[in-house]
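From the pipeline queue, job 12 of 40. The input is one protein chain; the requested action is below.

Action: predict structure.
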Amino acid sequence: MAKNFLRRMMCGGVPGWVCLLLALVTRGACAAGAGEPDGSAAFFAAGKVARIEIVLAAEALPVLRRDPHEYVRGTLREGGAVFKEVGVHLKGGLGTFQSVDEKPSFTLNFDKFTKEQKFHGMDKVHLNNAAEDDSLLMEQLAADLFRAAGVPCPRVTQARVSLNGRDLGMYVFKEGFDGTFLRRHFQGSDGGFYDPGLSHDINELKPKASRAGAKTTGDLKALWDAAHDEDLGARLRRMGETLDVERFVTFIAMEALVGHDDGYMVNRNNYRIYSDPEPKRFVFMPTGMDQVFAEECPFYPNGAGVLAQALVDVPEGKRMYEARLVELFKKVWSVPELEKTIVRVQRQIRPVLSPEEIEAHTKAVENLKEMIRTQTRRIEKQVAIIKRAGAAKPKNKKAE
């Protein structure tokens, strides 16, 4: 499997990450062509900060104060467009949640109360308050890297948001794991979708109720049992019956590369699972990447994410993982490209920032650049260790 992946990473002399992005775009275009055109691409390619005004009725505010996760009806304005009867609730976890009277994060569900209403082709989007990322860029950079590696991941940009006329400031705008997203990355959107909540592994998950009628929900118990097979020779084969092992290896390798220490591998957190109806395998996807490029993030599983640990405990699985880590660093990771994105976004958001905000954002960006450089040095050291260990292994199969 590792060899097949490496062959896919290069095509006709074109860098592998470019091929992967082209493949994703092509597949997305085919999926969109089967039904309504997907207008989301133009929104993310617009090259400007979205101005989003949310208006909630007075009676909706007490509801969100009492239960932040209960949907209320609101109106949203963006440019010249007005979206009515939008489902709105608050979101956020420890360290990021803020009340409706502060700077809350939002989930906006456009077809919750109005059937087939979409925002630039999307059913659901999120507005994150960036409480733990003053640069407004961590999620976007990490998501770009995951997608370049072939892992489905929501697109990200920035927005300036107001609530009932009150300027809330800058937000990270992120597409949801909705039907548009699933159709762009998979053959269809009728598979089972799993949202683990806070730090739950696959043995505790059930498909989202709203998708309970999906054609394929998969068998997480079979995957869990396979991961606990004490016969290491059979474990990977059994896991591969229900898990897209190749994509899972890429998923955890990318978590390590971007330093996602609050992800699945290290903390069994901030991930989603889709049961792809074809070829009937589970696919893991990242989310909640507002604290990436963390120096303390280990390069190997620490026992938290059971599937990750189960995979690397198998010698063949560990070899696959290490080979993928090395190849992804070579093919996907590029400090100059990351810094180009940073500069581009800085230019986009600067016109909508106050002088004080510009100063604070500039400092945050410089800190982010240093974090990326530090993470790059960490990866280089780890790659060197892996290569030395590989060079030291005996070539004679009998000796192995």
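Job complete. DSSP finds 14 helices and ten strands in the chain.
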